[in-house]
Specification:
Blueprint (H helix, E strand, L loop, with lengths): L2 H5 L6 E2 L5 H10 L5 H11 L14 H10 E2 L5 E6 L5 E6 L5 E8 L12 E4 L3 E2 L17 E2 L2 H12 L8 E4 L9 H11 L12 E5 L3 H9 L5 E5 L5 H7 L8 H15 L3 E7 L7 H11 L4 E7 L20 H13 L4 E3 L21
Helix pairs in contact: 2-3, 5-6, 7-9, 10-11
Length: about 375
């Protein structure tokens, strides 16, 4: 059993949320209870969203008493919920140690015949802050405080669902932090999200986005993970990418391309490139042509993303000079990519008015 998982949230008691089924089985064994009780607890936590041991009515009263004495469920309180005009909701969750994270609930811009959003996507955080110092990202201003536990990652989903009339259909690891730098806890959460007894999400509806941690990409490939992979690219040359994303000094475009080829050979799954457009930096015809060549290494698509200003974090240096490309050049760049047979999607700016759009998460307490 992973001892760190059992003690990281509440030292005095075992926190059950975030434990795998095997870890729950090991825990109930310490209570001298039969193995099948673990599966009952697991289903109650995730299928039925139990918030107390009293809610676990199929368990004997004596076991519920033992659980209340030796374990807790470990829920995250939402200390603030902000509502965007477009229906996006941003949550400020407080962790047990007093630190805070943000999570974003995004309704789809496309609707079905009933007029309701086709998808409801949750953007979850994986770290308190982030160590990568990407110049366009507000989270960089917070630096890294710590990794989130598996339970803290899973509970963002469970708590956010309470604020949505529609089931959450899609999950993206694109919030605060670099998921690949918290690989074990992130994949522990994925295993819970996709477990049949949890009945939460299909692997095909989960996307993990990385700034380019090669070891994580290769590990996903070796483990045959069936969730989707997205790479934050944002530049077609090493010089610019290193200025935007210092991690490029360690793993440059060649290393990333090699890693993605390795990933595709192992999984046969396409990848998504994420590309924020900055005025005068990466939005030229030459950039489009270079980006098209990059995308041909493996089957892929490109998500083109508007730059969402982060002036509220008081950036310095290069980051302070970044500007979004003009609407005309934005459309022209997309047109160039499509002429070059690149599959292109446009990422929306959902939640921009509450600093909940891509790159804007920085624990904003504003109204």
């Amino acid at each position: 059993m992973n001892v760190n998982k059992l003690s990281s949230i509440a030292p005095a008691k075992t926190s059950l949320k975030g434990l795998s089924l095997a870890e729950l089985e090991a825990f109930v064994a310490t209570l001298n209870e039969p193995k099948y009780r673990a599966a009952q607890i697991f289903r109650r936590l995730y299928q039925h969203r139990a918030e107390s041991f009293d809610d676990m009515t199929e368990l004997p009263i004596a076991l519920r008493q033992k659980l209340s004495e030796q374990a807790d469920i470990g829920s995250l309180p939402a200390v603030k919920v902000q509502h965007s005009a477009d229906g996006t909701k941003k949550f400020l969750f407080q962790l047990q140690d007093g630190r805070e994270i943000e999570t974003v609930l995004i309704p789809s811009e496309t609707v079905g015949d009933d007029g309701e959003p086709k998808r409801v996507t949750l953007c979850v955080s994986t770290q308190v802050g982030c160590p990568l110092n990407c110049k366009f990202c507000a989270t960089a201003s917070l630096k890294l405080k710590r990794n989130l536990t598996t339970g803290e990652i899973v509970d963002q989903f469970l708590q956010a669902q309470k604020f949505s009339d529609k089931p959450i259909t899609n999950l993206v690891f694109m919030g605060m932090g670099e998921p690949m730098l918290n690989y074990d806890n992130v994949m522990g959460a994925v295993d819970i999200f996709t477990h049949p007894d949890a009945d939460l999400l299909s692997p095909k509806r989960i996307t993990i986005s990385t700034a380019g941690i090669v070891e994580g990409i290769k590990r996903m490939a070796d483990e045959q993970r069936s969730i989707k992979l997205a790479l934050s690219l944002h530049a077609s040359t090493n010089g610019l990418r290193t200025r935007l994303m210092p991690i490029n000094k360690k793993w440059d475009l060649q290393a990333l391309g090699d890693a993605l080829e390795y990933y595709y050979r192992k999984t046969r799954q396409p990848v998504t490139y994420e590309y924020i457009l900055f005025e005068g930096l990466n939005d030229s015809q030459q950039d489009a042509e270079r980006l098209a060549r990059i995308t041909r290494r493996v089957p892929s698509k490109v998500n083109v993303i508007p730059f969402h200003p982060i002036g509220f974090t008081n950036p310095h240096g290069f980051g302070a000079d970044l500007k979004p490309t003009t609407p005309e050049q934005f459309q022209a760049f997309i047109g160039l990519l499509r002429e070059l047979d690149v599959t292109v999607m446009i990422r929306s700016s959902s939640g921009k008015d509450i600093h909940a759009a891509c790159g804007q998460l920085a624990l904003s307490h504003g109204e």
